[in-house]
Amino acid sequence: MLLSASTVSKMMSRIEERLGVGLIERSTRRLSLTAEGQLYYERSRHLLDEFQDVEHEVGRGPRQAGGTVRISVPVAFGVIALEPLLPEFWENYPNIVVDISISDEIVDLYLDRTDIAFRIGTLPNSSMIAQRIGRIRRKIVASPAYLERRETAYGRGFGGS
User: Fold this and answer.
1) CA atoms within 13 Å, Cβ hemisphere of 7
2) C-beta neighbour count of 117 within 10 angstroms
3) Domain 5-58 is of which CATH architecture?
4) Residue 82 to residue 28: CA distance in whole angstroms
5) Are 14 and 2 in contact (CB under 8 A)?
6) Over the stretch 19-71, which tens digit does the pLDDT of each residue have?
7) CB-CB contact of 74 with 118 (8 Å)
């Protein structure tokens, strides 16, 4: 933020009036700090630096977000859908550590301190909050040669061997 010279001068005069001491020696050619002004500057500079640090921490945007997020994900979904997204995620959020548990085993999210869990299928009754993010269709496919080897013809079902 840029302030005009007259605005700064008025602000300094108000501070000097409030403190009851002169902080700046003014002449027609230059300004210089008094001993009190030097002390005020040095102590205030430290406070301003602290204030800027606090504002930076509180007001940080997505690129500054940090911490650890724990994710539980089934093996296939983790490998196919989640893993390819991680490089771009880390590029956008370099201060976030992603702790991924890839397993088809259903774990206790509370005990494992898991933040996000991806599940496939119908969830049992739970106090957890679930949000559908997509649908998966399954198809069982085989080549005609495979079906021939298994002595199976189209439309007759699978034969035993």
Assistant:
1) 4
2) 18
3) Orthogonal Bundle (1.10)
4) 68
5) no
6) 999 998 888 888 889 999 999 888 888 888 888 877 777 766 555 677 889 99
7) yes
Do the first three CATH levels of 5-58 and 60-161 match, i.e. the same topology? no
Q: CA 23, CA 13: separation in Å to the nearest integer?
A: 9
For residue 33, what are the β-bridge partners? 24
| Cβ-Cβ contacts under 8 Å for 64 (sequence gap 6 or more) | 56, 95
Q: How many CB atoms lie within 10 A of CB 10?
A: 12
Alpha carbons 113 and 94: distance in angstroms, whole number: 22
Q: Which amino acid is at 82?
A: L
- Which helix (H) or strand (E) covers residue 14, if one does? helix 5-19
pLDDT at 161 (0 to 100): 47
CATH, domain range 60-161: 3.40.190.10
Q: Is 30 helix (H, G, I), strand (E, B) or coil?
A: coil
Q: How many CB atoms lie within 10 A of CB 161?
A: 7
